Amino acid sequence: METVCISLGGSVISRKDGINAGYVGELSKALLSHGSRRKFVITVGGGFTCREYISSARNVIRNDHLLDNVGIFATRLNAALVKNALMDAGLDVHPVLIERLEEIESAISRSGIVVSGGMFEGITTDAVCTIAAEMVGSRTLVNISSSSHIYDRHPSIKGARRLKSMSYERMARIAAKWDDRKPGSNFVFDIEACRIAKRSGIRIYFVGADVRELDNILNGRPHDGTVVGGTTRPRKT
Fold first, then answer.
1. Cβ neighbours, 10 Å, residue 66
2. Which of 10, 41, 162, 166 qualifies as a cystine partner to 45, CB 3.0-4.6 A?
3. What are the distances in angstroms from CA 33 to CA 10, 38, 140, 143, 237?
4. Domain boundaries in the chain?
5. 117: pLDDT confidence band, cut at 50, 70 and 90?
6. How confident is the model at residue 147 (pLDDT cuts 50, 70, 90)?
7. Would you say 108 and 177 are in contact if contact means Cβ atoms under 8 Å apart?
8. In sequence order, what are the beta bridge partners of 44?
9. pLDDT tens digits for range 127-137
10. Widest Cα–Cα separation across the chain
């Protein structure tokens, strides 16, 4: 059975105006329609909750490693929401939130879905998801965030163009511009994740917070987003 890895951006779940519970409900319905044909590894980012905690923590913590540790627990709070919502919707979800990479293979062999937040200081949930994809032999990674596309420059800059597809090398160059590796940073994609995806030929689909676009990807249909590298597509179901 094919395994699809999903890096669910915290910006989709945890926003300045509150928790986006509606999206989690929509995601549950989408995955339920594919649960008999695919397995899923989902990593969840920290979003606004993470940035708020780290911003406040900077008043009492100066060590970036320790600040990252605070951020990891924020990602796990969001991941717990996603995991429990999927379980409540009747999906076959591993009952324990994954906190160590070595737990993933065993968990996905017994369950249809495994969910995690962050795991390592200095390593983003994008990278965790990409490493997980490599571990379980997945060649499909869907990155869900508040922006549906990668741009050739920061989207706030006049003239910035959406990109429909690109090579791993170009993705790495774009990521390198914004990946400052600071606790709580929000950037387009993890440069280390780019390198891991390249070496294992993992195709990355970037998509916004419209669950219909995730469904398009899983059904092998064109989607509104950016595709990076890889040689495979999700099998049509």
1. 14
2. 10
3. 23, 10, 18, 19, 10
4. 2-228
5. very high
6. confident
7. no
8. 8
9. 999 999 999 99
10. 52
Query: What CA–CA distance (Å, rounded) separates 116 from 90?
Result: 18
- 3-state SS, the chain, equals CEEEEEEECHHHHEECCEECHHHHHHHHHHHHCCCCCEEEEEEECCHHHHHHHHHHHCCCCCCHHHHHHHHHHHHHHHHHHHHHHHHHCCCCECCCCECCHHHHHHHHHHCCEEEECCCCCCCCHHHHHHHHHHHHCCCEEEEECCCCCEECCCCCCCCCCEECEECHHHHHHHHHHHCCCCCCCCCCCCHHHHHHHHHHCCEEEEECCCHHHHHHHHCCCCCCEEEECCCCCCCCC
CATH number of 2-228: 3.40.1160.10
pLDDT of residue 230: 62
Q: Which residues pair with 228 in a beta bridge?
A: 166, 204
If one counts every other C-beta atom within 10 angstroms of the C-beta of residue 81, the result is: 18
Q: Tell me which amino acid residue 144 is.
A: I
Mean pLDDT of 148-167: 85
Among residues 77, 181, 71, 50, which one has the least CA distance to residue 122? 181
Token pair recorded at residue 213: 């676009």
User: Which residues lie across from 93 on neighbouring strands?
Assistant: 113
DSSP strand pairing (38-44 vs 113-116): parallel
pLDDT tens for residues 22-47?
A: 999 999 999 998 877 899 999 999 99
